[in-house]
Write a structure and sequence with these properties.
By secondary structure, this protein is of the alpha+beta class. About 25% of the residues lie in helices and about 30% in strands. Residues about 195-220 and about 240-255 have low confidence and may be disordered.
């Protein structure tokens, strides 16, 4: 049996009493206080999700844009710096290798966010196709952590608790900044929403995700301490199962 991988926050989850379970080849937190309570916390306030198991690949070089367009189903050329596209990575027959997010960091600089269970397969495919292009491909999955903050209070949590301004970010945009000496990308790419009297409004615009480059063994104690304040303020830290249940609920709403 293949040994489960661990995110950079694994030991912190264990010390805080999370229920851990295999997910996408990683030992991930499934829940803390309970699925229903955590689900409602995200719907009414906000929740924090460790999604550091996701894969990240950078593509740079003279033909980076041309290469990304070659392997990606959408056209990244019109995309402004700081823009994000969702789409499919395609094989030579037009079939799907994986779905992914493409972040445009510059004219010939991109970040690809791929699914955790497909990292090895996806990276192998990307590297093989890159041989015909003047590009540099780097798998930075093992040195990149990711936390998603989701719910109606996500924006306030990032701005007031973490001191990370994000109000100006529109849906599917990001910005890069320095956070305590570490490079960070703050993006608004989630699709969980909130209920209002008018129904489900702003579906997806209330999630804020960030990528903080760091060693996998680095738990970033200060960041965790600040994130814990979110829980103390009324929101909860949630597990992957809660995240999946919200996906399913949103899908049913939009049927």
């Amino acid at each position: 049996m293949e040994e489960l991988r661990k995110t950079c926050l694994h030991d912190k989850h264990v010390s805080l009493g999370a229920q851990m379970s295999p997910f996408g080849g990683f030992d991930m937190p499934i829940q803390y206080s309970g699925i229903v309570e955590e689900h409602n916390a995200v719907r009414n306030a906000c929740g924090v999700f460790d999604v550091s198991h996701m894969g990240e690949v950078t593509v740079t070089g003279a033909e980076a844009e041309k290469f990304v367009n070659y392997i990606f189903s959408n056209d990244v050329a019109p995309l402004d710096k700081g823009g994000i596209l969702y789409g499919m990575m395609l094989n030579h027959e037009g079939g799907v290798v994986d779905d992914l997010l493409v972040y445009k960091r510059g004219e010939n600089s991109f970040l690809l966010v791929i699914n955790a269970s497909n990292i090895a397969k996806d990276v192998a495919w990307i590297e093989e196709q890159a041989k015909a292009f003047d590009v540099n491909v780097e798998n930075v999955s093992d040195t990149t952590g990711e936390i998603a903050v989701q719910g109606p209070e996500a924006e306030a949590a990032l701005e007031n608790i973490l001191d990370i301004p994000c109000k100006e970010l529109s849906f599917y945009t990001f910005k890069e900044l320095d956070y305590n000496g570490s490079p960070m990308i703050v993006s608004r790419t989630g699709y969980t929403g909130e209920f209002t009297e008018a129904g489900l409004a702003n579906l997806g615009s209330l999630s804020a995700n960030y990528y903080a480059a760091k060693e996998k063994q680095d738990n970033d104690a200060e960041m965790i301490e600040r994130l814990r304040k979110i829980k103390e303020s009324g929101a909860l830290t949630d597990g992957e199962l809660t995240f999946n249940s919200m996906e399913e609920l949103d899908a049913k709403i939009n049927e």
